[in-house]
Amino acid sequence: MTTSRVLSIALQDTVQFPLRPLPIEAAELLHSVDAPPRLVAHLRAVHDVAGQLLEWIATRNLDLGIDPEAVLFGAATHDIGKTLHPAELSAPGAQHEEAGRELLMTLGVDSAMARFAGTHAAWTTEEAGMEDLLVSLADKIWKNKRIPELEDLVVARLASASGRPVWEEFLDLDSVLARIGGQADERLAFQMSYPTAGNGHRPPNLPDALTTWFAENDAVLRTRGITADLRHSPGDGRLKKSAWLTVEAGNRAIQITVWNSGEAELDFVDLGSGDNRPEHRDLQSEQELHALLGSILDWIVLGTNG
Q1: Which Pfam families does UniProt cross-reference here (predicted)?
Q2: Any idea what DSSP says for residue 144?
Q3: Is 15 within a domain?
Q4: In this structure, are residues 230 and 245 in contact, taking their beta carbons and an 8 Å threshold?
């Protein structure tokens, strides 16, 4: 099975401009929701900046109560809600914030780790601690945008932990942000090199295509002694919708499950021999689905004639 477009952007080496890979947990979450390529690239850029900020703070040896893994995960997933509000990929909007927090929790992420999706643009709230401020800061400095109010909050935390005057902490932070911000053009070029939607094209809507195929062929299948049953995932707003078709005749049965991401899982069962053979496919078009269904029927019919 080849690496998906999302995982490739999230994890593989960036040749022209080095950016650290996303945490594997974050990359897999983005893959599971079929995140747009440009969003994944943006998250990788912000995550890299968060890593640079953490490296600088580590040299200070201050007790700031920071969990570096939490900050990196937050930076890597803070905009995941834009998969639910794609208009906010290219235009201002805040609907993605709480939507992202809720999405992460529905995907099994602990609320403490999911919170960054909701706090990255709300740094003045009581909920925002130093970890949240760092994610917010990374989300600005990646493109060299300076927000005095946000930076003042970070400086205050640093001064409180170090005991140094605020102005000294400000000068040190300003120097670090100027250095990181100086590479904003390279990060912007990396992000803009990817499309805002799909892999250059949208994956086929396989659940709908399978539903249409079943409606058109069910009666014909039954006249040939082949029984088929089609079911769908709950219509509860989940991003990865699926449909699965079970086909049986004689001693053979097969279940094919398809997702709107283009993935397909097959489970071939020979009831006579007890053999069970699973397969995975990545389908690029409805035509590929139809060809696969034809192969499935050939295998089923061969069992009845054997």
Answers
A1: HD, TriTu
A2: T
A3: yes
A4: yes
